[in-house]
Design goal:
The protein is α/β, with parallel strands linked by helices and 365 residues long. 32% of the residues lie in helices and 16% in strands.
Length: 365
């Protein structure tokens, strides 16, 4: 198989990639406790995956309020910043690049996980279905508290401060997480946003918080080091919208002139039925690198690049058990399967103990 495009370097804004095999953000819930601090096993995990053209970090809490899941890392304390500095140093030593995914979960949280014991916040007081992953186990989601209009500038400031902290920690840039049913996505889509102020109702109003957040983060980083992730068809975390095409066409039209590093589009994930959604319409509206994600393999990614449906592709699950994914693609080595039981939480097992193909082949020789 010819994978010429996947291995053609690409400069996205200010970020130069050696190849187009990007590691998608993957929550693995293994931060040190107490304090949700990146530590030695996280350093080793990211170091092992530094041959990706770019690593996008696991979703990272921008503030205590932005936390939704036990054992996920943050970027709001000095200890967390120092922990991430170890990660970025290790990736850079290996010649890799890494950006931080900035995350506020909104309603996908629980009082148990909130540092102040308060209710999770959201655009509207509507609970998602399902359960929160807390230190005390799975607990039913609660009806969140609808944010007051005068609190929204504070949300933007949380993102801004986290972006400043990410810079201090030595990242190559940041990705604003506006996908998968978290706070910004909750504002975007009308299944979760029933507000009647400037941040609800019309598509332009629902896009406002994401656009204000992106503007604030760009002030910190410069436009060429900021990406945005969206999941227009995703239903994860009880998401729905009455007209996703119009909504995301508008959002991307507004994002394009900002001059971002990239637009990261989750095309398929967790029940998202992409049938009928026109992703090419988003690509056409975005004057920058379009990063496709969702169930891609080497051949389908190469085909997407060849057909100019995307500029770069990110891979999630394949990076879990294949730390050397670019080499496996390049040399057509077999892919290892990830153990589903060790995706979230725990320590080295199912995390840093997946070998590279060449080291396992050497051992078996
Ligand atoms: C274990 C796991 C953790 C994930 N964590 C995140 C995350 O932190 N942030 C995010 O935006 N997406 C997250 N995702 C979604 C992936 O980034 C990706 O969109 C999805 O797995 C589909 O891509 P793939 O088919 O290449 O795996 C996660 C997916 C999995 C399987």
């Amino acid at each position: 198989m010819n994978l010429e495009k996947l291995f053609t370097p690409l400069t996205m804004g200010e970020i130069a990639l050696e190849n187009r095999v990007v590691m998608a953000p993957l929550t693995r819930s293994r931060a040190a406790q107490p304090g949700d601090i990146p530590h030695a096993i996280n350093v080793e995990y990211y170091r092992q995956r530094a041959s990706a053209g770019l690593i996008i970090s696991e979703a990272t809490q921008i503030s205590p309020q932005g936390k939704g899941y036990a054992f996920t890392p943050g970027i709001h304390s000095a200890e967390q910043i120092a922990g991430w500095q170890q990660v970025t140093d290790a990736v850079h030593q290996e010649g890799g690049k890494i950006v931080l995914q900035l995350w506020h979960v909104g309603r996908v949280s629980h009082r148990e996980v909130q540092a102040d014991g308060g209710l999770p916040v959201a655009p509207s007081a509507i609970a998602p279905e399902g359960q929160a992953f807390t230190e005390k186990g799975l607990l039913d989601f609660e009806v969140p508290r609808a944010l007051e209009g005068d609190e929204l500038s504070g949300i933007v400031e949380q993102f801004r401060q986290a972006a400043i902290n990410a810079k201090q920690a030595g990242f190559d840039g940041v990705e604003v997480h506006a996908a998968n049913g978290y706070l910004l996505d909750q504002f975007l889509r009308d299944g979760s946003n029933k507000r009647d102020d400037n941040y609800g109702g019309s598509i332009a109003n629902r896009a406002r918080l994401t656009l204000e957040t992106v503007a604030a983060v760009v002030e910190v980083w410069g436009k060429g080091r900021v990406g945005v992730r969206i999941s227009p068809t995703g239903t994860f975390n009880s998401m729905s919208d009455s007209d996703p095409q119009a909504l995301f066409n508008h959002l991307v039209e507004q994002l394009s002139p900002v001059g971002l590093s990239y637009l990261h589009v989750v095309e398929r994930f967790a029940g998202a039925d992409a049938d009928g959604f026109d992703f090419a319409a988003l690509r056409a509206r975005f004057d920058g690198a379009y990063m496709a994600n969702g169930a891609y393999g080497a051949a389908s990614a190469e085909q997407s690049l060849q057909q100019s449906a995307s500029d770069v592709v990110s891979f999630g699950m394949p990076f879990i058990a294949n730390p050397d994914l670019p080499a496996r693609f390049k040399h057509q080595y077999p892919l290892a399967e990830a153990d589903q039981n060790t995706l979230y939480g725990g320590a080295e097992a199912g995390y840093t103990d997946y070998p590279s193909y060449e080291s396992s082949a050497a051992l078996n020789a």
